[in-house]
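Q: Convert this sequence to structure tokens.
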Amino acid sequence: MSSSKGKIITIVGSGLIGRSWAMVFLSGGYKVKIYDNQPGQAAKAIMEIRKQLEELQQSHMLRGSLSATEQLALLSSHDDLALALEGAFFVQESIFEDLEAKQSVFKALETHVGEGVVLSSSTSCLMPSNVFSRVQNRTRCIVSHPVNPPYYVRLVELVPHPETLPTVVDLAYSLMTEVGQAPVRLNKEIDGFALNRVQYAIIAESWRLVKDGIISVKDIDLVMSEGLGMRYAFIGPMETMHLNAPEGLEDYLQRYRQGIRRVLATFGPIPEFAGEEAAAINKEIGELIPGDQEHLSARRERRDQLLMGLSKLKK
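A:
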């Protein structure tokens, strides 16, 4: 806790991701300032954070060694950007996913902070070279992409700009580790980063299998939730291969590489995710989970409760 005492992190944007980041950093004992350019929105965010922290404390799932009251005492809201940035050593941008808007934000941020302040973006798929293109000193810029919801899913992808200094990546890695996240380093930028590239590959093949009448929406989701997902909650694809043959990865490849290549060669083109196929799949998932806000909110709450329980189990 000594390393975080008195240190300030500023969150720019008070939506779902911004609030989640605030909760994560508060759990590590950091002072957190939330800024939003819409007057009153940051103050509303604090009310929501208060509610969530108190609920987490009641369910014994509050992260960190501080109580909800102690964490909330470290939190403040701001409608003035300069005041919000005063004293910060790390800035986490968390606005909506729009390239021009993010570029404008970072251009403004640079005018209010010193050279040593790290500028970090929460973007899920925009390339750092584009997000930070209007920043003069890009050596202190980095993408810290969380997985929604960050409080329960700990992964953070750290993606550097081509000019980012290694010391900045190290600082971000240490910070994320200290507050209980699970950071991974990408050595260079790539469209979609790592998580979404893997996720999109799964989505594409799942979509093709449903579209081609091989399997239902319900059952392809079970393939993941009751099959692959059971493994992947604790070990990744490389370790899975390593453990799935008597003598490890080399043995696995000897046994299965030809079959893997044969099956991969049968994969179809990238789906359109539109038109009749999208309408049919939407109809099928809608019969399982209606698309109105009441049903979707209930399923999201269920998701978060399950993730909370899994997070507790993984500890």
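DSSP finds 13 helices and eight strands in the chain.
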